[in-house]
Structure formats: C-alpha cells, structure tokens
Amino acid sequence: MTTLVHHHLENSVTLFPKKIALIHGTRRLSYSKINKASNQLAHFLIHTGVIPGDRVVLLMDNCAEYVMAYYAILKAGAIAVPLSSDLKPTRIMFLMEELTPVAIISSGKYRPLFQACELKKSHLKVMIFNHSKKPDSPCNPLYTSWETALENKKTTNPELLLAPSDLASIIYTSGSSGKPKGVMLSHQNITANTASICQYLALDHRDVQMVVLPFFYVMGKSLLNTLFRVSGTVVLNNKFAFPAQVISEMIKEKVTLFSGVPSTYAHLIHRSPLKASRDQLTSLRCCTQAGGHMPGAMKRQLQQALPKHTDICIMYGATEASARLTWLPPHYLESRINSIGKAIPGVRIKILDDAGREVPPGETGELVATGNNIMQGYWKDESTTKKALDHHGYHTGDEGYMDEEGFIFLEGRKDSLIKVGGHRISPQEVEDALMETGLLMEVVVLGKADAFLGHRLVAIGVAKDKTTPARKILACCSELLPKYKLPGEIRLVRQLPKNANGKINKQGCEKLL
C-alpha cells in the first residue's frame, strides 16, 4: 500500500526491478539501481544523525542523483527541502536560518554558492556534494563527497516507522506575487494528489514522461512521483534551450507524455521543429499544461502543431495543493477552451464570495479547495497560514466562476486587478486579446502609476516577427477590446524575464517599465 511518498519507488522495485526508471542522456538506470543508491544514502544520513522531522536541503539540477537523494531523504524520515537553482547567497542565508537544516545535498556546481553564504553550521551535520572537482577539505569536516556517502554497505529499505501525516517536503513558492513561502506538504498530501493524477490521466507502466521542468518546482516533482507510482519511465532533458534536441529525444525514446508551463509551449510552437516533426511523434499520447493561464489562441496553435492523436490536457493547481486541483478532459478542449475544467478526484472546489457564501453558477467569487492534497500550512508563518486555510478550505486567491455544468473559468488573481480611471481591469483579459491578434509569442500586461488615471496599462511582449511594429499589434487589439481596456503602450522585447521554473517573472517584467 502506498502511504508514504518513497513507497512509489519501493513498490515499483518489487514489481519491475530491472525496468528502466530513468533516462538522462546516455545514462539508463533501473528501478533497483535507483532504490539501492537511495537506500545507501538514506542509511548514511541516519548514521550521520539525521532523524525524522529534520530538514534536508536539496539543490541540484535534474539528474539521477537528484532522484536518489530525494527518495533517500524521505526514507530517512527527514523533510526534503528542494531549493531553486537561481537563488542568490543572501536568499540562501535567509532560508538556512529559517529552516535550520541538518544536511545539505548538492552538486559541485553549487558548492561556491554555499561557501559564499557564510552558513551558521551549528545545526549542520553534513554537506554532500556530487561531482565536486575540489577534494574534501580538512578544514571543512562537514563536506562529504557523493561517492563517500554511497560507500555504505546497507542497501535494504530503512523501514522507519513513519506516519502519512508526517511532513515529507517543504516547497518554496516562486514568490512572483510576493515573498516566497515554505509550503508544508505531508506524505498523505503528496500521495493523495499523485494517486489522483494517475487516475485521471490513466497512467500506467507503459508511459514514458519527458521532463524539462525542474524538480524543485512542484509540477516537476509531481511528474517524477506520478511516473514512479505507476512504474513508468522518466526521461530527463535539461537542454530545452535547444528544442530540436528535445524533440529528437522524444522521438527516439518513444515519449508518451510531455508537460510544460505556458512559456514552454510558446517556445515549442514558435522556436522548435515541433510541427515539422509531428508525424514522427507516433507515441506521444498527451501533452499536459499547468503553471498559469495559457491563452486560447496558444492552445489552438498547439493543436495545429501536435499530431492529431495527441491530446491536450489543461490543468490548474498550486504548490499548496501538492500540485493539482482541476483538469479539463481533452475532449472538452474545443467547447470549453478557456476553462480550467472541474475538480480532480478527491478534491472539491467551491466559489465563495467575500462573506464565505457559495455563489450561484455564473457569479464570480474566490476558488476555495478542500481535499487530502491540501498543505499543512506555511513553514514558520502562522499569520499567512491563517489567511490561506480556514474552515472553508484553502483560499487560492484566484477569482472565477462556475457554469451550470460545473466547469470553472478563471478571471485572474484577487489582487491583480488594475484600476485605470474608474475601471478595474483584469490583465489576463487584455493579455488574451493581445494573443488573439496572432502577432505575439507571449505577453504580460502591467499597471504603471499615472498621476491622472491612477494606473495606465503597459503591455510587454515578444513578437513572432521582429519586424512587426507595436502600433500594428495595438491596432489589431483595438478590434477586440473597448478603448478603456487597451494598453496605452506596447513594448516589444526579445524575451520576457522568467523564473527558473519557466514561468513569467512579473517582478522582473516590472523592472522593464
């Protein structure tokens, strides 16, 4: 029975010990090999003094060692804390003080980052670095190489007495709309959401998932957990900047599933040979999208670029929900192209007004979710936890409505409406209209302070054709929106600032104003 997250791996070892679980470049690792290494590392951590409930920081690019380390931390009863690869030393130092981790597992690439942090090592028991070119330093006794950590002869599952309610992970939000928060997820939260995703996507051991999203991002980690739950195969590709290589590997490895955020698909549609290669993607059965709103125009472009047999599954979720909250079954894509679908199995979503009353179909309110996948709260942040969790459930902060048949439509964040003159405008609506012109790859709409209007709308976008003038885009958009919703200015750039998880960084975009 899968009650703990690492049972995904251990159950697959029992069923398919020799099956290839992970492909990364020329490396092909079986379930038994990954489990053996995870057990060796778990026993090393336990021997070092790591006990259940301790925090262990994990900072690596996607690789086999990341997978081994992730499951090893859980097997040792500790809490895995994956960190973003684009963090600066000052942020690392703050997180180390907030988390007081007992161990850090990273790669040689990030060793200088930790050295620059001047970490307070009173709580640290060990720092393990993989592929570190520098030898272990005698003046830094905490440093241990990956090879040394795996010298442990014990290869059996540790079998600690852990409960489903125990914390499995603390995942920090990207902070695109404020200060990053440490989302506390229990084993039950993650396994419940994983089981639900496997159910509605009908995943099984024959599936091969291409992963281009980082594992520190909750969506990337859910891809790992879902495929390992069903004994499938995960193909890691960290070269999305070279999309032709990604497409080539998808064909070679007979990938059945691909997943991305909106910018991932914008890149595939406009900067890759996806459409030219679609006849060769004979195994690709489904592309899933989450990580933010994807305009209807982009969904239609993706349909045209993919093989006819490939489904597109739109999903909506949050780190606080262990990943997923809703999904739109592919056969509804045409008729409900702007919908995020319905609640996934095991989740209930209500649309509530400011007084906490459920609103009737068609009326706008806040999406509030309940289910076993909902977080335990924010790490060391009781006040923010109380705002997000109450007797109604998890308050997503997203506004939308539900139609008569139960399909949900998002209208934007509660705090994202921009006041222009006497109007409150949803930037998402304006972004959708700009994308409908067919002249942009992607766009973000922001409010710039204005002495007369309060704010004026400014769009920052990437044009498909570098020669397209901004005035042409604005003229086309004027046919789709009333005058008061039109951006006062459109600035065209080569690319929009992105977070390490591929999502548009609005704070970075605001610096372009």
UniProtKB/TrEMBL annotation:
The lineage of its organism: Bacteria, Pseudomonadati, Thermodesulfobacteriota, Desulfobacteria, Desulfobacterales. It comes from the Bacteria. PANTHER family: LONG-CHAIN-FATTY-ACID--COA LIGASE, SURFACTIN SYNTHASE SUBUNIT 1. It comes from Desulfocicer vacuolatum DSM 3385. The keyword Cytoplasm does not apply. Residues 10-379 form the AMP-dependent synthetase/ligase domain. Keywords: Ligase. One of its GO terms (molecular function) is ligase activity, forming carbon-sulfur bonds. This is Acyl-CoA synthetase (AMP-forming)/AMP-acid ligase II.
